[in-house]
Amino acid sequence: MCGILGVVAQTPVNQLLYDGLQVLQHRGQDAAGIATIEGNAFHLHKGNGLAHDVFRTRNMRALSGNAGIAHVRYPTAGSAVDHNEAQPFYVNSPFGIVLGHNGNLTNTAQLQKELFLDDLRHVNTNSDSEVLLNVLAHELQVECKQLRLDSKAIFAAVSGVHRRCRGAYAVVSMIAGYGLLAFRDPYGIRPLVIGSHQTEHGIEYLVASESVALDTLGFKFMRDVAPGEAVFIDFKGNFHSQQCAANPVLNPCIFEYVYLARPDSLIDGISVYETRLNMGEYLADKIARIWPDHDIDVVIPIPDSSRPSALQLANRLGIPFREGFVKNRYIGRTFIMPGQAMRKKSVRQKLNAISVEFKDKNVLLVDDSIVRGTTSREIVQMARDAGARKVYFASAAPPVKYPNVYGIDMPSRHELIATGRTDEEICTEISADRIIYQDLADLKAAVHKSNPAITRFDCSCFDGEYITGDITAEYLNRIESSRGGGKANKTDDEDQMELDLAMSVTSM
Fold it and tell me: Distance (Å, rounded) from C-alpha 67 to C-alpha 96?
């Protein structure tokens, strides 16, 4: 997953873009980058690390101009360590273009061949974002007449991108001499929103991955970018939009609401916070239905994103809700470890149990999801060490059984604890006394309840149904092979994303 921003303003945008990256830091912590434009000259700075580590005062001074784009990266394609794969990317032909991308292309290998053999374009990295940039550049070259562009030609080029590219992609880009271009894949898998701000000098526009960026930067929410739609804002502030896909159908990623997005965001008309409350209600109803004689004494969330679900679950069941874990927000990044012992140590450093909330109690731990399970197992043991009599574990999401190929870093079936295991076997694996998963139908209902107009979602990591229609067993095997057969040095998904947000993102 990644976070993207694009702005056309009346005053310098470097500070605004930097502040926006801080707000979207939860969407990517491996790299950050900002590109601005002044006249027809791009100013670009990017590098590995958090936004506050990548940018210094001297870098910010060099990022002059009243328009720009910005990106934070959590890699799902390409390399996690190559600083050359930090975004935005740049090409100078047929026009100067910079681009940042959130998502994952599923036909990258095919496009790389087409770019080299047919389009005569060279790609320097393994990043699908650079591939997407070059596809866009080629389509713009095809559509431009006498080396001049207008909005009609730009939208025709985006239509060409939609015809060629498969997968999930939300994009912000700038074309030198013209303006800001943003677009979303025809399935609307990854989010993208638009906001505006009226100033004494004129109107300003901002596009971003989540509405929370609009809120904190002083922009008024306009709407979501529709699936397949492109938005073009020229550098004079004129706004243009057009549907560029043949058969767009909104299928937002349901995992955005479970985990990825901030709770104070609104995505496709759906409140993330309200959705998580709904998830807690449905999970409570399931517990009351299948386990009416439960002996749960207390409900404890695993910080942070499971709090709304755990609170609503406790209220609905009439069970006390308590904070049983304290997160250390000043631990450095530790999720890439040489061995399992070090991974366990990192979890203990980041979470500490409040013993009084566990001692001699039957505890229900609630998490947003269980992906690899190593963190869940360690947290269950922490609860026992703190004196819990019994430890039950509830997941506000269904079992994650399938790889996500649309921009979330859980690509290998070998790494997913629920793949090929029953609930009872998973319970044994994490050493809990009982495990309760949300039903997929209830998860869909929890999200749908916040916006009844949306009836379809990408739930591929739960049900194995890949909505782009191009994912085969061979494709999944190839991904796993490139990741070393799923035997990565990373901890489970909670370690990679949830627990490591502690050192860079304010509690939400």
Answer: 14
HEC string of 286-305 equals HHHHHCCCCCCCEEEECCCC
- Give the burial string for 432-468 (b: 16+ CB within 10 Å, else e): bebbbbbebebbbebbbbbbeebeebbbbbbeeebbb
Neighbours of 90 (CB within 10 A): 17
Q: Residue-wise over 216-245: b if at least 16 C-beta within 10 A, else e? A: ebebeebebbbbbbbbbbbbebebbbbebb
Q: What tokens were used for 441?
A: 């139908």
Residue 162 to residue 127: CA distance in whole angstroms: 18
Lookup: tokens for 175: 């074309």
Q: Tell me how far apart the alpha carbons of residues 352 and 128 are, in angstroms, rounded to a whole number.
A: 39
Sheet containing strand 298-301, strands side by side: 298-301, 362-367, 390-395, 434-437
Q: How far is CA 330 from CA 279, 349, 496, 498, 504, in A?
A: 30, 10, 16, 14, 8
Cis peptide before 304 (omega within 30 of 0): yes
Query: Which residues are identified as catalytic?
Result: 2
pLDDT at res. 293: 97
| Among 299, 198, 212, 197, CA closest to 26 | 212
Rounded Cα distance between 150 and 136, Å, is: 15
Q: Which two tokens stand for residue 41?
A: 């000259």
For the chain, give the mean pLDDT. 89
Q: For residues 135 and 273, give the distance between their C-alpha atoms in angstroms, rounded to a whole number.
A: 37
Q: Taking the alpha carbons of 22, 25, 28, 31 in that order, is the dihedral positive or negative?
A: positive
Find out whether 206 and 213 touch, Cβ atoms under 8 Å. Answer: yes
- The DSSP line for 87-119 is S-EEE-SSS-EEEEEEEEES-HHHHHHHHHHTS
Cα dihedral: 265, 267, 273, 275 (round 10): -170
| Helix and strand counts by DSSP (H, E) for the chain | 17, 21
Is the bond preceding residue 338 a cis peptide, omega within 30 degrees?
no
CA within 13 Å, CB half, 334 = 20
Query: Rounded to an integer, what is the distance from CA 229 to the centroid of its chain?
Result: 20
Q: Write the pLDDT tens digit of every residue in 401-449.
A: 998 899 887 657 788 999 999 999 999 999 999 999 999 999 999 999 9
Q: How many CA atoms lie within 13 A of 26 on its CB side?
A: 24
Tokens at residue 434, please?
Answer: 């009982």
**Burial track 360-390 (b if 16+ CB lie within 10 A, e otherwise):** ebbbbbbbbbbbbbbbbbbbbbbbbebebeb
Q: What is the mean pLDDT of residues 463-472?
A: 93
Burial 19-37 (b: 16+ CB within 10 A, else e): bbbbbbbbbbbbbbbbbbb
CA-only gyration radius of the chain, Å? 23
